[in-house]
């Protein structure tokens, strides 16, 4: 500004700088006396306010502030007014600085407290005990069955649950018009695949892959179009067993099943084989074992008969061996199938098999 030019009214300029500050500072002024916990401020909003306050300070006291240009005027006002003008400017600057510092200190104290509160850990609180999972009752029974057969030299095989006609029916000597193929008995996909209705499918795959001789069990999920009730579920678990070698006879079947029930239900358990029919075995037999509860005298578990059904069994039909390219003149075998969930239901005296698949922890916890 050239020498002697009008400075305007320096005092007015100083007052205008003060006014501008006061106006913007109004929303922070209430914090000067301290921010109480009841202020309703959250940590986030306090942090935002603190940032805005810091910007406000720069705007009103920084190099480009109105106050800075007012300060430059001090040396240029008439000497007789200089002292009082200088005082005024100092006073305004002090007001601004004090206001900002007090509000800032209060906000920072609040922020500090809020952060500490947020991060506080009460080390004297008892720990939250994680809920321990446990094995499903069906798995419990399946693993016991697997252990017994593994100890007898059997391998455990698993495979897909959706099958072609060949694996679910044809290879098992179930021809085209057999009632087992009824869509009312089995689930089909829209492309004509079937949900496996027995785990024999696994054994067909295994014989194709491994050849014979073979000793294996195939535990797994199977599907039937049954209306659910206390003893039926459209999805259930089964174990099938298969032993194919040279010279295998019905005696091996009976010996193996007998050994199995001895280990599963106790050495006093007796077995009973009743002639039956399955397309994939010939001859075929239903297997019963003497009731583990009453020992055969008759009770509620065995419905008074003294016997419990274990499942079906028989000598592998030659057509099944031929279907997987095994010479039925050289090799013979036995096979059996039993229901895991039915066994599970009996062993734990469940009055409804569907309980096993409802995933109600109040039920499942009891097997912990
Ligand atoms: C039942 C009991 C049975 C088989 C399953 C089988 C498997 C092959 C060959 C021959 Cl690969 N048989 N399994 C045998 C007899 C009974 O299941 O009640 N099924 C309807």
Can you put this structure into words, describing what you see?
- This protein is of the alpha+beta class and 368 residues long.
- It folds into 2 domains: 10-119; 137-367, Bira Bifunctional Protein, Domain 2 (BirA Bifunctional Protein, domain 2, 2-Layer Sandwich).
- The chain has helices at 10-29, 43-61, 66-73, 79-118, 137-151, 165-168, 200-210, 250-265, 318-323, 340-347, 361-364; strands spanning 155-156, 162-163, 194-195, 214-223, 235-245, 271-278, 281-290, 307-316, 332-339.
- The chain starts with 9 loop residues before the first helix and ends with a helix.
- Strand 6 and strand 7 form a beta hairpin.
- It is rod-shaped, with a radius of gyration of 44 Å.
- It contains 11 helices and 9 strands.
- 41% of the residues lie in helices and 17% in strands.
- It has a 7-stranded mixed sheet, with helices on both faces. Strands 2-3 form a two-stranded antiparallel ribbon.
- The longest helix is centred in the N-terminal third of the chain and has 40 residues, at 79-118.
- The structure holds 2-{3-[(4-chloropyridin-2-yl)amino]phenoxy}-N-methylacetamide.
- The site of 2-{3-[(4-chloropyridin-2-yl)amino]phenoxy}-N-methylacetamide has 18 residues, from helix 7, strand 5, strand 8 and strand 9.
